[in-house]
UniProtKB/TrEMBL annotation, chain B:
Transmembrane regions listed in the UniProt entry: 29-51, 58-83, 139-156, 186-208, 214-232, 239-259, 265-281
CDD domains on file: TM_PBP1_transp_TpRbsC_like
Protein name: ABC transporter permease
Keywords: Cell membrane, Membrane, Transmembrane, Transmembrane helix
Lineage: Bacteria, Pseudomonadati, Pseudomonadota, Alphaproteobacteria, Hyphomicrobiales
């Protein structure tokens, strides 16, 4: 990797060969990173690329397994967050740890020297927030503040320590576009003062807009260091998601059968200020087909899944049809009864109740669709524990779920094994339609390949499968057809064999060419 | 006449205020101790025993405080160290306290106690009307005022109080900031116990200077209701204590005058008012968030 940093400036931070092992897994593998004074440096990468691990080492939360951190020309061992702060490194975390019942000033005071009087802290915080365009009233209670304002508290708290480098972890993921614009102004101000910013993101547009340099991570390795303004969204996306997409297409382009899922011109308004509006989404999945939906996180994947699964029914029943029936107004169970199965993105608290056993989780999701098998006594709904337990065992055997004990709590399983169970829970019903969001997110390689194989096998047996994923490798591995979601719009589907990486990158970057909408308008 | 009534109201309100302000601190740190009644009665019997055996009611007050604090330590050990359920443990503490105090106090039944003498402020106590009310009271009254002022200052002005409120709001984040959650909670629980003990001492040395089994007569429960009624603010505890105290006294006078309100109705008023206040609080999400300790009653186990 050739570094082309300004030679005249001593780098503020230089990271050489930084490596972190968790067990035998290298979360970070020989990372090199150089940050010059007064630059906004992007750390780009998909979820799980190793960005957080790297940053935690820089901030002293984790200790590296190998490599060195050179701070203003001197090698340093950053022992703790406190040490990092004293060196001049500030950090704004993605998830804030604020006390809602306390005021802004009180929250800041808790992390500062107790000798500084509260009134002085309030004054300094107010002055700082004015100077950096971060409007904040120190006497207001956190409970009354928006997420954007809460983030400002964290930024002001970091600025009070007068840092040379501020690390922001996915700061805009919780912000509205307007709030994000305000944040960028602040970052430019920090830059003008000669402070550096390490800006972690997977949003290409932002990075191109505000960052001077970018380091791209993928699978724990640096895959590129560049000036993002010189790059195209496609080239950045390729660095992020990899260019070695192998030709692992599913073997047979088997004959596709009847249309099982038919979505026409689905429009869903955003439910919260942070949600994405679905615009004119149309898709069609036939028996035997795996339709993969690619896209950078936060472009409407969750909203699309909610609409397809019935977690939030849509306004017009006819916009979503499954097996030739309008299902738009049906909830999850109504759609399950029609033979559909769903796997949401979050394993804990959404797909499974962590503290309950596997068999209880099985009953919870299938109590309606498998009522006759799992519940006895008609109205009385007596739980048939034996049947459910044996079904849970069958699922575990089928998917090779490794667990301790016969029927352990969901929480005791590793992420990959729980995900195998959750996927197996749906497959066990042999659904004619399966809709999965991020099937292998945070899952180890072995479990991931098992899950992908199961999805392909299900399609081969004549079901329609929709896989929403951010992992392009996965998408090319399982997909018959690929569509790309960007800012709530879905591209037309392309046969997996015909789609080039260049093209997918452009679509992910939000460039919609004339190909949008295979089915022409007026069909409303 | 009015002066006499006001004097009895002060005497009736003082134990409520003291017990409630102690429980307020405990709950602000995020611990729900339903054992106030039990700690109070233990304080009462210890105070009576102390004053009877030493002949000094002041030493008796000290014994009451210590008795309540030591008894609350049992609750602290169970809920904070062994992480038992706070509701169940608190109820058990009350039942245990009522039984144990009866056992300890068996030989004191029927013995006349020594009344705690008022502290008379010269000159000030001669002011007509106000003087006897405010400047000729026993030490527990002055302590109740000092406790309200002190706790208010501690919670909202001192850094330690800020840390305690932080623990009550979110013990996980507080722990992450390096605040010692368990130790602070132990201290808060013992403060609550000491206050309940002091309130009990007031009962057996001032209110009715003798030992009677179950003499706390539900005042611990009123104190608990009072904390919620006050939405965890010290000065509202003070105001509420006097309202609840006045209701109790006026009920007696109403009976004496033959006013036809059933006494049961008046006895339940404090609880009915508390329920109404709870409903009002729950309607306003903001007040709830800001005043209710969010981690109240939740067990805390630090990460290993």
């Amino acid at each position: 990797m050739t570094e082309t940093i300004d030679k005249e400036a001593v780098p503020l931070l230089q990271v050489r060969g930084l490596t972190k092992y968790f067990g035998s897994f290298a979360a970070n593998n020989a990372i090199d990173l150089t940050i010059a004074p007064g630059e906004i440096h992007a750390l780009l990468g998909e979820n799980g690329a190793g960005k957080s691990t790297l940053v935690k080492m820089l901030f002293g939360v984790l200790q590296p397994s190998a490599g060195e951190i050179v701070w203003t020309g001197k090698p340093q061992t950053v022992t703790s967050p406190g040490h990092a702060r004293s060196l001049g490194i500030g950090m704004v975390f993605q998830h804030f740890s604020l006390f809602e019942a306390l005021t802004v000033a009180e929250n800041i005071a808790l992390s500062l020297d107790p000798k500084i009087p509260l009134t002085k802290i309030a004054e300094e915080a107010a002055a700082l927030s004015r100077a950096y365009g971060l409007p904040l009233d120190p006497s207001s209670h956190v409970a009354d503040l928006s997420v954007g304002e809460r983030q400002r508290i964290e930024i002001v708290r970091a600025l009070l320590q007068n840092p040379k480098l501020i690390i922001l972890d996915e700061p805009t993921s919780v912000l509205t576009p307007q709030e994000a614009d305000k944040l960028f102004e602040t970052l430019f101000k920090l830059k003008a003062e000669g402070r550096s910013v390490l800006y972690i993101s997977h949003r290409l547009e932002e990075v191109q807009r505000i960052c001077d340099r970018a380091t791209v991570l993928r699978h724990g390795k640096v895959t590129g260091a560049c000036d993002p303004r010189q790059e195209t969204p496609a080239s950045l996306a390729r660095m992020m998601v990899g260019s070695e997409v192998a030709a692992v297409h599913r073997a047979d382009a088997n004959a596709l059968g009847a249309t099982l899922v038919d979505v026409r011109r689905l429009n869903v308004p955003a439910r919260t200020p942070f949600a994405v509006t679905l615009k004119d989404v149309s898709l069609r999945v036939r028996a035997g087909e795996v339709l993969a939906i690619a896209g950078v996180a936060g472009n409407g994947q969750g909203e699309l899944f909610d609409a397809l699964s019935g977690e939030y029914p849509v306004a017009d029943a006819e916009t979503i049809r499954m097996r030739d029936k309008p299902v738009g107004r049906l909830g999850i169970n109504g759609r399950r009864m029609l033979g559909a199965g769903f796997v949401p993105e979050e394993r804990h608290g959404h797909a499974a109740v962590s503290d309950m056993s596997l068999s209880d989780n099985l009953l919870l999701s299938r109590s309606q669709s498998d009522r006759t098998a799992f519940l006895a006594g008609g109205f009385a709904s007596v739980i048939r524990h034996d049947t459910i337990r044996s079904a849970a065992k069958r699922i575990c055997d089928m998917m090779d779920v490794r667990k301790s004990g016969d029927d352990p709590a969901a929480a005791s399983l590793s992420g990959g094994n729980l995900q195998k169970f959750i996927i197996g829970r749906e497959l066990d019903r042999q659904p004619s339609i399966l809709i999965v969001n991020q099937p292998t997110w945070g899952v180890d390689a072995g479990a991931a390949s098992r899950i992908r194989q199961a999805l392909i096998d299900l399609a081969r047996s004549g079901s329609a499968v929709v896989v929403i994923s951010q992992d392009l490798d996965e998408i090319f591995e399982v997909a018959t057809n690929i569509a790309v979601i960007s800012e709530g719009r879905l591209s037309q589907p392309f046969p997996a064999g015909e789609l080039t990486l260049e093209k997918i990158g452009l679509l992910m970057g939000g460039i919609h060419d004339s190909t949008h909408g295979g089915e022409t308008a007026h069909a409303h | 006449m009015i002066e006499a009534i006001l004097l009895t109201i002060i005497t009736a309100a003082t134990p409520l205020v003291i017990a409630a302000i102690g429980e307020l601190v405990t709950e602000r740190a995020g611990v729900l101790n339903l054992g106030v009644e039990g700690m109070m009665i233990m304080g009462a019997v210890c105070a009576f025993a102390g004053s009877y055996l030493t002949g000094s009611p002041l030493l008796g007050v000290l014994c009451g405080i210590m008795g309540g604090a030591l008894f609350s330590l049992l609750f602290g050990f169970l809920t904070l160290t062994l992480v038992t359920n706070q509701v169940a443990t608190g109820l058990a503490l009350t039942i245990l306290g009522l039984g144990l105090s009866g056992q300890i106090g068996e030989s004191f039944v029927g013995i006349p106690g020594v009344k705690l003498q008022p502290i008379v402020f010269p000159v000030l106590s001669d002011i007509p009307f106000v003087g006897p009310l405010l400047f000729k009271q026993d030490i527990t009254f002055y302590l109740s005022i000092a406790l309200i002022i002190g706790v208010n200052w501690f919670l909202f002005k001192s850094r330690t109080g800020l840390k305690m409120r932080a623990i009550g709001d979110n013990h996980g984040s507080a722990h992450a900031l390096g605040i010692n959650v368990i130790r602070t909670r132990y201290l808060a629980v013992m403060f609550g116990g000491a206050c309940a003990g002091l309130a009990g001492a007031q009962l057996s040395l001032v209110y009715t200077p003798q030992w009677v089994e179950n003499m706390s007569a539900g005042r611990g429960w009123i104190a608990l209701a009072l904390v919620v009624f006050a939405s965890w603010r010290p000065w509202r505890v003070f105001a509420g204590g006097y309202i609840f105290g006045a209701v109790g006294i006026l009920q007696l006078h109403a009976q004496a005058f033959g006013i036809g309100v059933p006494s049961q109705f008046l006895s339940m008023l404090p609880y009915a008012v508390t329920i109404v206040v709870l409903i009002i609080i729950s309607h306003n999400r903001r007040t709830t968030l800001i005043n209710t300790p969010a981690s109240l009653g939740k067990p805390f186990v630090p990460d290993r």
